[in-house]
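Inputs:
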Amino acid sequence: MTPALRDVYISGVGEFLPGPAIENADIETYIGRVGGRRSVFGPRALRWNGVQRRHYAFNADGEALHSNASMSAEAVRAALRDARLEAAETGYLAAATTQGDLLVPGHAAQVQAELGHGPMEIASFQSVCGSALMAAKAAYLNVRAHEHDVAVACAGEFSSRWFRPQFYEGADLVDAKGRLRPEADFLRFTLSDGAGAVVMEPRPSGDGPSLKVSWIEIVSLADQFAPCMMAGAPLGRPSEVWGLAGPVAAHAAGGIALLQDFAALKRIIRAWIGVYLQRVESGRILPEQVDHLLCHYSARSIREEIITLLRSTGGMIPEERWFSVLSEVGNVGSASIWVMLNRFLRSGRARRGDKVLCIVPESGRALVGFMMLEVA
Amino acid sequence: MPAVDHGAEAVLRRLAIVFTAFERALDATPVIRRLNGGRFELAHYQAFLRAHRQQVKEGALWIARAASNVSVDHLELRSTLLRHAVAEHRDFRLLEADYLATGGAVEDIRSAPMTVGSEALSAWMFHEASKPDPFGLLGAMWIIEGLGSFKAAEWGRSVAARLGLPPEAVRFLSYHGENDAAHIEEFREMLAMVLPDPVVADRIVRTAEVTARLYVLQIEDVLS
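Outputs:
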């Protein structure tokens, strides 16, 4: 007889943020100055995204202190410690990232190697912020379906590596006055480095709050939208993939750097809200019953647009129930939701029975993920 | 399931969902697919203007007819509809001016036949507008005005950028401006004039769905 599906709990959460917290004024000391000049657009990007401090895996001399995999492994160790488990007890590792240390092989292999504790099942999830929930869903289902008793989902980013001046200089992204295009510069002043992880088990941890995973749902609208945050082709010309002309030509065309298409963002936000409101309408998400909202919005201005629409449609979760650490730890891409969850649990706000809704929109190609948790 | 709610917020939520599906369907039409990333040429924009001119010319008229069928119990709504009709009844002239600015001949846009989609949309709107207290048409307004506040300026910028056109060639799409928050709030107030009422609530949502479907048909027909 097939055993019944099991309930799944997040029994441990961990994070790893490299180095000291870096203030806004010092960003370019770490990520460098394109063409040796101060960014003109940077201050505007910072007003827009509301980030005040972040962490970089480089020191001020440009030396890498960590790799994406080593940060991810640190976060996994922290989550396992939080769950009071030995690393060797992990049966399944799902690793998420936007861009791994290597183009090949996958991120999970790199993280497993860093962890260094024997054979295990792994899975790599490459997307943008939403990859965190893709990995979480895989870990959740593996435990739920009795495939593994301890599954770990981690997410890590070493974004600043891609923000070094050499990624832009000599590319069709710098104008005659030496200014980097906003589509490229915005992300330099928005994203930063770090990792987060959760441990999933079929039971709550003995001590400390655990979170029962009620459901995880990811909706991609990629068939409706062109890439909105991308690397690998010039913006607006996604068919010019970099492999066709080789990496040198691709760099010159502005096809290697990480880029954000602002114009498409507004349309995508409406589509995300549509997906959310459908869940409100169907009764899957009841805003008045959500005690805490952890929403990974990547810019303050995005949050404000979302609020306006939600208020008038009865979809709003009151602002005092929103929990965010964006301004203090920066936007760590896929790792953000785990860093946020970690700090939320340590904030003392979680009470047994509270419902915690995590929302991870990903502009990449218009995806949004939801995870409903209940404090056990 | 949430308690059944027929107030303005709940209806606005359902309308927002309809609008999302509407945007998705619009993005899949040939002319918008071209605009968003395919090959988009002046002839495509001119076809868009020709199809719209006939549509928009009728638009203010059905609002006026709807207003004349609103009973004395809802004078405030009648006033609002009349103001909308006044504001919009000359809009088709703007489309003609845009067409001229793209190098088109005014007699061409004036004599262009209505598309099949346009015929269907207009017939449906006048049919609904001819009913007593045609509150369902608020759903139609949500779709058509939503296009104005959410999509038109976006399309206008995109058309101008793709074709290198001057501002005077995209005035119809651009002049609506983008005032999403104000638009939603104003619309919520209009809904509150006739809600809560379960029958009216369902009719508004249904009318929005049908209008959206027929509008998509009209946009599909732009290049046919």
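Remarks. The mean pLDDT of chain A is 93. The radius of gyration of chain A is 20 Å.
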